[in-house]
Amino acid sequence: MWIPTEHEKYGVVLASFRGTVQHGLPLEIGDTVQLLEKCEGWYRGFVHKNPNAKGIFPCTYIHLKNAHIKNKGQFETVIPTEDSVITEMTTTLRDWGAMWKRLYVVKTVQHTHKNEGDLFHRLWHVMNEILDLRRQVLVGHLTNDRMKDVKQHITARLDWGNEQLSLDLVPRREFSMVDPDEISVTELFKLMEHRHRKKETPVPASTHHLFVHMKSLMSSNLGEELEVFFHIYDGRENRPLSERFFVRLNKNGVPKSPEKTERQCTLFVDLGSSDLRKDVYIVVHIMRIGRMGAGEKKNLCSIQYRRPFGCAVVSIADLLTADSKDDHLLKVYACTTESEWYQIHENIIRKVNSRYNLSGSNTGLAVSLQLLHGDIEQLRREYMVLFTRGVSITKKLGFSDIIMPGEMRNDLYVTLEKGEFEKGGKSVARNVEITVYVLDIDGQVMKSYVAAGSGEPGGDEYHSFVLYHNNSPRWAEQIKLPIPVDMFRGAHVRFEFRHCSTKDKGEKKLFGYSFIHLMQEDGRTLPDGTHELIIHKCEENANLQDSSRYLKLPFSKANLPGNNQAVKGTKESFWITSFLCSTKLTQNGDMLDLLKWRAHPEKINDSLSKLKEIDGSEIVKFLQDTLDTLFGILDESSQRYGLKVFDCLVHIINLLQDSKFQHFKPVMDTYIESHFAGALSYRDLIKVLKWYVDRIVDAEHQDHIQQVLKATEYIFKYIIQSRRLFALATGGQSEEEFRCCIHELFMSIRFFLSQENKITSPVTQTQAVFLRTFPAVYGELLKIFTVREVAGFVRETLGSLPATAHAECPLETVKLHCITKTVESQLYTNPESRCILLPVVLRLLQAHMQEQRDLVMCARILTSMLSLIRKDDSVTTELVVSEEVDLIVDSLLVVLMRTILEITNRPQPAGTNMRLQFQDITGEFVACLLALLRQMSDKHYQQLLQTFTSKDDLRDFLLQIFTVFRILIRPEMFPKDWTVMRLVTNNVIITTVLYLSDALRKNFLNEKFDYKVWDSYFYLSVIFINQPCLQLESFSPSKRKRVLEKYGDMRVMMGCEIFSMWQNLGEHKLNFIPAMIGPFLEVTLVPQPDLRNVMIPIFHDMMDWEQRRSGNFKQVEAKLIDKLDSLMSEGKGDETYRELFNSILLKKIERETWRESGISLIATVTRLMERLLDYRDCMKLGEVDGKKIGCTVSLLNFYKTELNKEEMYIRYIHKLYELHLKAQNYTEASYTLLLYDELLEWSDRPLREFLNYPMQSEWQRKEYLHLTIVQNFDRGKCWENGIILCRELADQYESYYDYRNLSKMRMMEASLYDKIMDQQRLEPEFFRVGFYGKKFPFFLRNKEFVCRGHDYERLEAFQQRMLNEFPHAIAMQHVNQPDQTIYQAEAQYLQIYAVSPIPESQDVLQRDGVPDNIKSFYKVNHIWRFRYDRPFHKGTKDKENEFKSLWVERTTLTLVQSLPGISRWFEVEKRELVEVSPLENAIEVIENKNLQLRTLIAQCQSRQMQNINPLTMCLNGVIDAAVNGGLARYQEAFFVKDYIVNHPEDGEKIGRLRELMFEQAHILEYGLAVHEKFVPQDMRPLHKKLVDQFHVMKSSLGIQEFPAYVRASPVHFTNGSPRSSCRNSVPNIISPDGARVVARRSPLTYPAVNRYSSSSLSSQASNEVSNITGQSESSDEVFNMQPSPSTSSLSSNHSASPNVTSSAPSSARGSPQLQDKHKHSRENSCLSSRERPVSAIYPNPLDPAQRATPHQIGDTTLPRSDPNLSAPDKVRTTFSSRSLDSVKEVNNTQFSDTVGKLLCPPVPPRPPYSGSSAKTMRSQSPLPTSRSPQKSSLPPFTPSPTECQSAGLVSNSPVLSGSYSSGISSMSRCSVSEASGTEATTGDHPAHQGPTMPNSVSSGSDELIRRENKTPPPYSVYERSNPRRPVPLPHSLSIPPSVDPPALPPKPHQLRTSSMKLVPTSDPRRADGVPHVPRPRPLPRKVSQL
Predict the structure, then answer these.
(1) pLDDT of 1671 over the 50 cut
(2) Which of 641, 855, 1731, 1964 gives a 20 to 30 Å CA spacing to 1325?
(3) Per-residue pLDDT for 1015 more than 90?
(4) Strand ranges (DSSP E) for 951-1081?
(5) pLDDT per residue over 1114-1132, tens digit each?
(6) For residue 1945, is the peptide bond before it cis, meaning its omega torsion is within 30 degrees of 0?
(7) 3-state SS, residue 1416
(8) Which of the 8 DSSP states describes residue 1408?
(9) Which of 788, 777, 801 shows the shortest CA–CA distance to 832?
(10) Cα–Cα distances in Å, from 1229 out to 1260, 1460, 1462, 1521?
(11) What are the CA-CA distances from residue 620 to residues 41, 660, 717, 1000, 1428 (Å)?
C-alpha cells in the first residue's frame, strides 16, 4: 500500500534507472527527485526537471537528503536543508551544463569565431573548478577561514559564469543567495547595485608595484663580471624615488645565481598613482669589475676595480598599456667622457646626444617588466607563485602615501656625491676609490649593514667605482645602511679614500679618510640633507682600527668652530647626502622636548605651542607617548595648561582626519579603550568644550572653534571613557553632576544651532561643521544614557535648527547629511527611538523632496528608513510597523511618485558620472516606492483613498501612479540581468493595481466615466503583460519553475483583470474602439494559452459594439490588419495563435446576425497571419534570399489584391527591392521599384516624407524613381527596358524645356543602345519547380513555379541550390504530376526539371538582318509560356526502327506573370498537355536541322563565322548519319505501304516529310559548294569524303535529280543580301483545301524563321558559288536543334561531338523514371539543362498557339506543320477570289504593307477527330475548344516546301546528337514547328484583306478574356507594350503601334502626342476585335500622403 512520505522528501539519484517496469519513471544519475509516496522498497515521485511526469522507482537508487518543506500538502515545495551555496552551485551547474552543450554544438557545427570557442573551454575549466570546490565544502573538514575563502571563490566563479552566459545577477549576502521576500525591496536594490557595481566599475587601485626580472645583458665585448643597478627616478624633480635593486652578472652577461630568483627578481613597492607619469623612469646603471681600461691586456695585476660600463632608461608610462608581463630589450648607452657618468641618465632622458653614445650596436639589456596594482597583501594572494618562488622587495625612499600603524622601518640612505682632492705631488690626477664602513659605539665594524641595494645581502664594507685620473670625481652612488634602532646611538660611518695605481702592481694606496656620527648628543639622528665632510690626511699604512683616535676630531666643515680657519681653508672636501626613513627615530628636537616634559617642566608651555608645527608623521610615530604626555600634563596642571592641552588634543585628533594618517584612527581608538587612564579629564574637557561653544555666537574668528567642533567625536569619546573610568573607580559618584553638565552642554549647542544667520555668516559655517560630526556622538552617548534619552537629545538638537532656510544655504545640505547619518546610526535602528525621531526626519525629508533638492541624499535617507521596516510575527512589532507605514505614506507617497516622474522626465545630464548618479537615484526612489507599497495593507489603501476628498484629486493620483508604474516597467529601469528585481517590481505593481481597480470601478464608471483614467489603466495593463521579463517561455525550465512557484504567471492574472474591467465598461467600450485593438492584439500574441483564451473574445465584443454603432466593423478590420503586420514582424505570434484566433472567434460569432461579414473578416485576418508567419520565418537570419523574395512577393500581392492597403503595399515593394539589391537581382529590383513608380503621375502634387524619401513633389519622386530603375536595368543588362524609361523622361524634360537634363537623358539612351550592340549577355536557363507537401511555407505549398536561373547555372547546379535552400526536402525522381498523398504529406517534396521559353516577340526574331545581340534579349525576356517535352513509346516498340512508336508528350506552362518580373520565379497559372505523333516529330526534327544548315551557310557566306568548323561539323553529322541509315529509317517507318494505308489522314504529312528530305539534300549540295569555297587546305580530304558520302546519300534516298519544284528556282540572294530578299519575297498562300499555294523558288530562299532570327539564303546555281561575295547582311546565329527522342544508333559514331551526350545528372535525383515499356536510352535527358556550344546560341520552341505579331512581314505568314494538328486541320489563310497569278502581280511593297497589318489568330490545341492519327490532347484549361476551318474554292495544290517561311519554327535542343546529324537522333526536349495562321484585320488595302477569322480561335480568345479579367500588378515594362492583356498602362510607358516595320532595334514606342494620352493598340490575340477596355488604377490613390 502506498503511504505518503513524512520525512523522506528529497533525494539524489545514485544510478540511472530505465523505468522499464509499469509506471516506472526513468532516472539519470545526478537527478534530484521529490518523493511523494513509499511502498515496499519503491518510491513514487517526480524528477525536479520535469515535475509533470510522475512514476515509481526503487528506493536503493536514491540517496536521501534532509529537506525543509514549504506549503505542506498538495502544492508543497521541498528545499534541501544544506548550505545555500551548495544548493546554488547544484542548480547553477545544471543550467550551465545545458548551455555548455549548446556552446559545443555552436562551436563545432558553425565554426564560429574565436570568442565562443574560448568561452566553451573557459566555462568547462570553471565548471571543473566549482565541482572541486563543492567537493571540499561537502567534505566539511575546512576551517572557518578556509571555508570563507572557498565560498568566496565559488561565488566569484558562479557570478563570472552567469555574466558570460548572460544569466541573471544573483543577490547575495555573505555568499548566500537572498530570498527577495525576506528582505525589504530597498535592501534588495542595494545588494543588486553593490554586486552590479562590483562587476561594472572596479575601484582603481591607489597603490602600484613594479615587477622587474633581470634576464641577461647581450654584448659582443663582455668578458668581465658586471653589476647592474635598477632604481626608479623622477625626471621632473631629478631625484631617485626608490632605493636600488642590485644584480650581479657573470662574464656571459647572465645572473650569477640563477637558482636564487630573489637575486634577479624584485618588486618596487608602494608607488603612488602620482608616480605613474611619463617623466618617471626606470634607470639602470651597469658597472664592470675588472681592469682600469676596458681594452687593457691581461697583466700580472690581480686587483679589480668597479668601472662605469653603461646606462639604460625606460619610462614607466610605457608599461601602463601592457596587460601582461612584457619582455623589453633596453638599449645601453655609454658616456663620451667619464666625468659625466653621474648624470648620464639625465642626459639620456633630456636627449643630450653629445654626451653619450650607444655602447655597442648589439648591446642590449633583456629585462621583464610588469606593473601590478593593489596593496601588497592582495598581490600575495593573486600572485602566489611570485612570492613563493622568491622575490626581493625594493622599497620607496621615504614612506608611502598611507602610513600603516605597526609598520617597522629604520633605513638610513647615504649617497656618495662628490669629492675634491689635491694631486698629492703627482703629475696626473688620482684614481680615487672610496671604501665605506659602519662602526658601532665600541669602534667595531658592524657586519652586513652596508648594502648596495636590495637583491644582494649587505656586506661589511662598500667600494665605490673608480673614475680614471679625476681629482674632482662625482659618483652619485646610493648605499643603504639598515642599522637597528638600538645600535644607532654612538655609531658612525667612516669613508676611506685610496688612490688606485695603474702600474704593474696595481696597488690601492690610502691617502685620507672622513667620518660622520649617526646620532647627535641630544638624541636626534643625523639630519637629512647634504653634508660637507672634512678629509683627514693619513699615511698609506695608517691604522684606523682604533676609532677613538679620530672621533674627537671635527668631521664636518659646517660644525667647525669659527677659530679653526686652517681646516676650513683646505680645498679637499667630500660631500654626502643622507636620508633617514624610520618609524622609531626622530630628527625633531621639539618632539623630544615634549616627550621629556617631566625633565624640563619650564619648557612645557613652549613644547605645547610648538606641537602644532611638528610634522604629522613625527606625531603619529609617537602617538601613544604624545597622548600620555598631554593627559599627564592635564592631570597635574589642569588649571594652568587645560586650554593648551585641549588645543593640542584637537590638533592631534584633526591630524588623523588626514587621508595620509587616517589608518591611525584605530590606534587612537585602541588607546582610548585600553591605555587611556585620565579618569578626571572629563570635567576639564566638558568645561573647555562648553567654553568654546558659548563663545561661538560672539566670536569674530570661527576658524579655531570650527577645528574644535570637527574633533567633537573623539572629544566625546574621551569624555565618556573618562566618566566611565571615574564611575568604575568611585562606584558611580557625581552621576547627577555629570548629567547636568552634559545637559548644559547640549543647551549651549541648541542655542548656537538655533541662530538664524546670513548664508555667508561664519556662524552658519560653524553650525554646518557641528552637524557633520554630531551623528558620530550618538554611539558614545548610548554607552551612558538610555535610548529614549539620546533620542530626546537628538530630536531637540535637530529640532532647534532654524526652519526657514534658503534653498541656496549650504546648511540645508548639511542638515540632510546629518539626518542621513542619524537614520543610518545604531540609535535609529531601535523601534523605541525610531518613533521619537521619525517625525523630525519626515518633516525635513518632505521639505527637500517637494523642492526637488539634494535628491541623492533624500534617496539614501528613504532607503535606510524603509530597510528597517519589517513585518514580524509579533503583534507589537506589527503595530509599530503599521504606524510607521502610515506616517510615511501620509508624508511621502505622493511626493515620492512626483519625484520619480520628474526625475525620469528630466533630460539626463551630459557627464557620465552625473548620468550614472541620476540612474542610481531613480533606482533608489523606485526601490523605496516599491518597499512602501509592499508594506501597505488593505487598511493603508483604504486610508489612502479616503484622504482624497475630491474626485479630481483621486483622478490625479490614479493617473500619477499608473504613469509611475509604466515607468517602472521600462526595460531601461534596471540592468538587463536584474530579473529578480523586475519580478519583485511586477509583483508589487499587480498587487497595487488589483487594489486600485476597485477604486476605478466605483468612482469612474457610468455617468462619472473618465476616459483618460481608464485608458491609462488599460495601457499599463498591456505593457505589463508584454514585458520581456514575464515571458516565461524564454526562460530555462528551472528558472520558469522557480518563478511560477514564487509568483505564478502574473500575465494571466493581469489578463483576467483586463477582461473583468472591460466587461464592466458596458457602452463605454465604444470609446476604446479602435484605439485598444492594437494593444489587446499585442496581448493575445503572447504565447500563453490561458491568456489568449481570456483575451481573444474581447475582439468579438469589439466587433459587436462596432457593428451596433456603425453597421459594420471596418475600423476593427483595418486596425487589426495594420497592427498584425508590425507585431508579427517583431517576432510575435505563431501558428497556434492563428488557429486559436480563428476557432475562438468563429465559435463566438455563430449566433450573431452579422455572422457572414464576421466570418469574412476572420478569414482575411487568418490568411494574412499565414503569410506574415511565412514572411517572418523566411526573414530569419541564415535563410536564403530566394525564399525571402518569394515570400515577400506573396505578401505584397496579398496587400494589394485582397486588402487594398496601399501604404503596406508600398512598404513591401521597398523591402522586396532591398532584397533584390542584396541578392544582386538588378533586373528584378527594377521591376519591383516600377510598381511604386506606376502609382505616381507626372504632377506637382506635394508628397510627404515617407520611408527614405524626403518631402518632394510627385514629379520629383517619379523622376528619381525613373533614374534609379534605369540604373538598375543597366546593371541587370536589361537595356531595352531602360530605353523606354529614358525616352519617357526625355519627353518630360523636353516638355519643360529642361535641355540640360534632356541632353543627359539622350546620352544615357545612346549609351544603352551601345551596350546592346557591344556587350555580351548570357541567356538564362529556366526551370520548373514543384513544391509539394504540407511542410512548405504557405506561399509555396502544393504549387508549381518557373524560375529564371542565374548566369551559367545549369540544371544540376540549380537542383543543388534548391536542395540547399530546403535542406529537409526530398527530390522527386520523376516528372509526372504527383498524387494527393504527396500533396497532403507532412513532408517537403521538390520536383525540378528544365523548361524552354516560348518568346512572344516574333516580329524581331523573324526579321532578317537583326543583329543577334538584339534578338537574344527577346528570346528570354517577357516570357509567359514555357514548354517541356517528354518522349515515350506508345504501343509496341519496334526494336528494328524505334521511330515508328516514338511519341512526344508536350507540356506548356503559362505563368501568372511574365519572366523576368518582380521575382525570379512565378507561379504556373495554367498547364496544357499535348501529344506529338512520331511522324510530326520526324517533320520537326528535319525542319530544325534544315534551318540550322541554312543559317550556318548564310553565316559562312556573309563571313560572320571566323572559322568554318561549325559548318563542317554540321555537314559531316548530317551526311554521315544519313549514309549510315538516318533518313532511311524515316523512310522505313513512314513511307512504307502499311503505314500509308493505316494512317490515311497523314498523307499530307508524309508528303511534307518527303519534301523536307529532298530539301535537306538540296541544302546539303549547296552547302558543300559553299564549303568548298571556304574550306582550308588541310581539310580538303574531309571535304572530298563529304562529297563522296553525299552522293551515296542521294542514291540511298533514290534521288537522281531534284524534283521540278526544287530545281525551279536557283539558290541565290536577290540583291546580294538575305535582308533584301526577305523584304522582297512574295507571301505564300494556303488554299482552303489544305494545299499550299507557293511561288516557284529555290529551297534556300525559304528564310529560317524562329525565335531568334529569320534568314533567307538565295544563290545562283551551285556552279556559281565561286562568284559569291561577302555582301550578305544576315546576322543569324547558329541554331542548335532539339535532338529527337530516338536512339543515337542512327547517328554516325565517328562524327559525334563531345556535346552529344545527354546532360542528365549522374545521380538519380531529378531524373524521370518511366515504365519499362516506355524506357529509352535518352529519356533521362528530359530533365537535363540546355548546354550550348560556344559557336552558337540556341532558340526555344514556340507555343502551338503562337501568333505572328503586327510587324510580321511577307514570308512570315506561311504556316508550318503544327504538331498539334493534322494537315487538313491547320488554320489556313487565303485571299478571297485570288489565284496564284494574281498574287504574283501584287506589288511587293504594297503587299508588305498589307501583311504588316495582318494578325495571326491564336491556334488552340485541336480536339481529337476521326481523321487524325492516334494522338491525344490533354489540356488543363477548363474552357472548351472547337475548330471550324473555312474552305475555299481553290483546288489542292502542293507547294514547294522551300518557299515557305515558318512563322513559329524554333529549335532549342541542348545538344546535337551525333554532333551535327541529320536531325533524327536522340532528343531531350522535342522542338515544335508551329503553324501560325494569319488573321486579317482591317487594313489600308481592301483588295488584299486576309481571310475571315476562323471559329477555331474561340478557345484562345476565351482564354485571353479569362486572363484579362484578372488584374495582377503591372509587373513588367514589356507588358506595357505587349498586347497580351488589354489593361491600360500608365501613359508614361504606353506604346502606340507603328504602321511600318520599325528600324532596328525596334523602338518600344513612338513619340506620344503632346497631350500624353494613351494611344489604343490593336490586340493581335483578340479574336473578336474587341477594343481595349481601360483598366481602373489598381489601388485607390493615397500616394499624396506618401
Answers:
(1) no
(2) 1964
(3) yes
(4) none
(5) 889 888 988 888 888 888 8
(6) yes
(7) helix
(8) B
(9) 788
(10) 20, 10, 7, 48
(11) 74, 11, 19, 69, 104
